[in-house]
Design brief:
Distance between the termini of chain B: 38 Å
Helix content of chain B: 10-25%
Structural class of chain C: alpha+beta
Strand content of chain B: 35-45%
Oligomer: heterotrimer
CATH superfamily of the domain at 25-112 in chain B: Nucleic acid-binding proteins
Strand content of chain C: 5-15%
Number of helices of chain B: 2
Number of strands of chain C: 11
CATH topology of the domain at 25-112 in chain B: OB fold (Dihydrolipoamide Acetyltransferase, E2P)
Order of helices and strands of chain B: HEHEEEEEE
Shape of chain C: globular
Chains: A mainly alpha, B alpha+beta, C alpha+beta
């Protein structure tokens, strides 16, 4: 019975130590602020996700066209706007670099 | 949006008719008296248990699962009897009141195990 | 040692309360060290819960009857494996299992995503809130560490639970149920930290898939247990306890599909938040239903102290979730909208509507007795006909959609392209339908429709693999086998998903065959030794009875010879066991698995009259029922493929989220 209580006390002490650890390691930190993505970071994330979405959509369109789900007419109609959207997203991310939409690669359905 | 609303309305309609059409009333023995229709009787088995479920019929009585009522209802039942069936078990049985006796539907006897989380079933095939 | 268990749970409770309070404060006031401290508290909570779990396991193994829980659920003669499984056999232990799995999952999820500090700062308090409820219950309402003077022997375990499937079924279910808390917590965390990006989905994608798989497998195990152990000839009875696991699974299925839409098109953000919350709330509700027995009888509500607490917790979480989603609604605006009602997005949407509709009708059916009792003073309940109706109404279109979805292009599909891609599957369906009607199977409309739709879906899936492999060959010049494997490897989620669809297909066919086309026969006056009965081409002859003594039971078995077309096929031994310690009988069915039709000859010794040696035998012939269990394996295979880590994708996601990294799943 006393063994149980001792073990219990040890457990409690360990718990407290773990919880206090961040404060014990850095008693007087230079900066205690929790990092938060700023406006710029958020915007960048949005653009990256948009770029990835557009590129993935292009790959899927290419694949669907190859496997016959999308007719030639539909493909022609859809590929233009998608390429433009992808180019825009890339341009917005790297305004100075040349935004070039990669040709549909040999990587199927990525 | 319009399509969705139509679909939703249709769904509600189907739901309503299906539920109203198919629902069974559950009663405890103390509330059964005089109830004419097809119901599900919920109660605890009271002995003695006589007869044969595969012969002339298993005969026993049921009382309320909880509460002070001392009312017991005589049952006659034919069909499969679940293993957990015994005096003191909580059971559910569908059927009709015929005269003073509740006649159970064939194979509709089901036992419930209140403390375990897996109720034992009767013989309704599915 | 019970004191250690109790102390450990108190430490857990203290830790999660701290994690909740400190974590919320830290996230709100943006304090880095405090957030880290709260995170550590959550991690430590797993450690202390583990200690409590080990204490209980050791007590169970040693049959320490001073633990009231051990005395109530085990006995000296109980085999060790089952004694250990009593951990989750009772209310208190199952709560501890919930907490153990939750704290373990939480620790892992938080640890893997620790670099996404702003997101995790809010995820920690959400997880702590849920864990806090269970810790509270375990410490102050329903403790597994209550001690009492030890009785001579324990009460033993209900015989029907002494079965290998019952060893695996609850842990599987819990790994599933609890797993749904993780995506919920990350979703709420994303809302709380005002994030509009997809990090929470990316981080929890594999968690959701894993939890969903465990929940599905857990249900199949439970169904199989009901089939072989309870032995009434069926595997699902629409019992509230069964529905309790089905509902969150359906919601999770809908969620798995709709997140794909959010990832690809930036749509359905609000819907996804609602769905992930629904899945979580239903899993808590499911635990509540199973534990409190409330829907069996309204009176059981007041009997169990747990019911009120659980309802309160569900109500609290529902209110908080709805409020949070409502407040953050502006953040969840869609980027694009649905372009065409004939597009793959649209089919996913229909799939979601059907799944949620089915889920809600089941919920309605489960709640109906409670509602009628509360509102009308009279309890009314629904049963199999109600559930079957809605299973057919929503399930059959869902089945068909599984085949339609892959054939339709994203954004907008032209009817001409559809015509071409639909042709072969449609032909397959029509041919199958005609053949089946010709073979005399037109009697059951749902059965016929299931088979016809299944043919459509099967053709559609096969075509997907075929066309994909061909396309790969054309581009990379690979051989067929290599093209196939690289096709799947480069697109694990899609093709793993198709394998899962194939599993659902097998499930549907198995269910249709074994219910719509089953035959049942039971001779009214029973069989005397030597007598035979005929059913669906089989002849069963009853030979006699035999009794023997097993480890903790007395077993009576009838010998039944089965022959088909004049030749002996097998001998079955249905019967009953009598357990002296538990004072209970259990039904022991005997099943013949016929390789010819993948079906079963299911024999039940309904009643045995030892004096006259009369056997009341009930026999069911269930064609194709074994497809259901096969489906379970295919299901796991598909999920594993879909979950398999993809190095290229990992790199891409790591680069995308570099400044505030999440681990892309497990």
């Amino acid at each position: 019975m006393t063994l149980a209580l001792v073990l219990g006390a040890v457990l409690a002490v360990l718990a407290v130590l773990l919880v206090a650890r961040p404060f014990l390691r850095e008693p007087a930190p230079a900066d205690d602020r929790l990092a938060e993505p700023g406006e710029l970071d958020r915007r960048r994330l949005e653009l990256v996700e948009e770029r990835d979405r557009a590129l993935a959509a292009l790959k899927e369109l290419e694949f669907d066209h190859r496997t016959g789900k999308v007719s030639d007419d539909d493909y022609r109609a859809l590929v233009g706007p998608l390429r433009r959207a992808a180019a825009e997203a890339l341009r917005a991310l790297e305004p100075r670099a040349q935004a070039r939409v990669p040709e549909p690669t040999t990587r199927i359905g990525g | 949006m319009l399509a969705l609303s139509v679909a939703a309305a249709l769904a509600v309609f189907i739901l309503y008719t299906a539920v109203v059409g198919g629902a069974t009333t559950q009663l405890s023995p103390s509330r059964l008296a005089g109830h004419a229709g097809h119901v599900a009787l919920v109660g605890t088995v009271v002995g003695p248990v006589t007869g044969d479920a595969h012969g002339a019929g298993l005969r026993f009585r049921v009382k309320d699962v909880s509460g002070a009522s001392r009312v017991t209802v005589p049952i006659v039942y034919r069909g499969s009897v679940p293993d957990l069936f015994k005096v003191g078990r909580h059971i559910v049985l569908t059927g009709k009141l015929q005269g003073a006796t509740f006649v159970g539907d064939k194979d509709s006897l089901v036992t419930k195990c209140p403390s375990k989380y897996a109720p034992a079933k009767g013989s309704s095939s599915s | 040692m019970a004191e250690l268990g109790r102390a450990a749970l108190l430490v857990t409770f203290g830790l999660v309360v701290y994690a909740l309070v400190a974590g919320s404060l830290a996230a709100w006031r943006r304090r880095r060290r405090l957030a880290l401290s709260a995170q550590n508290a959550l991690l430590a909570a797993f450690g202390s819960t583990l200690v409590a779990a080990v204490v209980l396991l050791v007590a169970l193994a040693r049959r320490d009857f001073t633990f009231q829980y051990v005395a109530q659920h085990t006995s000296r003669s109980l085999p060790l494996g089952y004694a250990l499984s009593a951990f989750w056999g009772g209310q208190e232990g199952s709560l501890l299992l919930w907490l153990l799995v939750l704290s373990g999952y939480s620790a892992l999820a938080v640890w893997l995503n620790r670099r996404a500090r702003d997101l995790v700062a809010w995820v920690v308090p959400v997880l702590a809130l849920v864990a806090g409820f269970f810790a509270f219950m375990l410490c102050f309402v329903s403790s597994p560490f209550v001690v009492a003077p030890a009785p001579g022997d324990g009460a033993g375990m209900v015989p029907s639970l002494q079965n290998p499937y019952m060893l695996a079924h609850p842990p599987m279910l819990y790994l599933g149920y609890v797993g749904l808390t993780i995506p919920f917590a990350f979703g709420m965390g994303a809302l709380l930290s005002r994030q509009t990006d997809e990090r929470w989905i990316v981080a929890t994608r594999r968690w959701t898939l894993a939890a969903w798989t465990f929940l599905g497998v857990g249900q199949l195990l439970g169904a199989h247990w009901a089939y072989v152990e309870i032995g009434w000839g069926g595997y699902y009875a629409w019992d509230p306890v069964e529905n309790a696991a089905l509902m969150p699974w359906l919601a999770a299925t809908a969620f798995l599909h709709s997140v794909m839409i959010q990832e690809k098109r930036g749509m359905l953000k609000v819907w996804n938040m609602v769905l992930v919350s629904l899945a979580f709330l239903l899993s808590i509700f499911g635990t509540f239903l199973t534990r409190s027995g409330v829907v069996n009888s309204i009176h059981a509500f007041s009997e169990s102290p747990l019911g009120g607490w659980f309802l309160g917790f569900i109500a609290l979480m529902t209110v908080l979730t709805v409020a949070l989603i409502y407040i953050r609604l502006p953040l969840l605006k869609a980027r694009t909208k649905l372009e065409s009602l004939v597009s793959r997005e649209a089919t996913f949407l229909y799939n979601n509507l059907l799944l949620v509709a089915l889920c809600l009708t089941i919920l309605w059916g489960v709640m109906y007795p409670l509602l009628t009792q509360a509102l009308r003073g009279e309890t009314r309940s629904v049963s199999k006909p109600y559930y079957d109706f809605f299973l057919h109404t929503f399930g059959l279109p869902l089945l068909l959609l599984m085949g339609i979805g892959p054939l339709v292009a994203w954004r907008r599909a032209s009817l001409r392209a559809l015509g071409k891609t639909f042709l072969v599957p449609l032909l397959a369906a029509v041919v199958t339908g005609v053949a089946l009607i010709g073979a005399g199977l037109g009697g059951s409309t749902p059965g016929l429709l299931t088979y016809t739709f299944s043919a459509f879906v099967a053709a559609s899936i096969v075509l997907e693999f075929w066309r994909g492999t061909n396309a790969r060959r054309a581009i990379a010049g690979e051989s067929y086998p290599r093209a196939f494997t690289s096709l799947v490897a480069r697109n694990r989620r899609r093709y793993g998903g198709y394998v899962v669809h194939a599993a659902v297909l097998l499930l549907a066919i198995g269910i249709a065959g074994s219910s719509a086309y089953q035959t049942v026969r039971e001779p009214v006056h029973g069989l005397r030794p030597g007598q035979s009965m005929e059913i669906a081409g089989y002849t069963l002859t009853y030979r006699g009875l035999a009794t023997r003594q097993e480890e903790n039971a007395q077993a009576t078995r009838a010998t039944v010879d089965v022959s088909r077309g004049g030749s002996h096929v097998t001998t079955l031994h249905p019967g009953k066991n009598w357990y002296p310690v538990e004072q209970q009988t259990s039904n022991e069915v005997s099943i013949y698995h016929d390789p010819r039709n993948l079906g079963d000859v299911f024999t039940i010794a309904d009643q045995i009259d030892p004096k006259s040696q009369t056997l009341f035998l009930k026999v069911l012939v269930k064609p194709l029922v074994n497809l259901i269990w096969v489906a379970g394996f295919v299901f796991v295979l598909g999920s594993v493929i879909a979950m398999w880590p993809d190095a290229v994708e990992q790199r891409r996601l790591a680069e995308r989220y570099a400044p505030a990294a999440v681990s892309a799943g497990l």
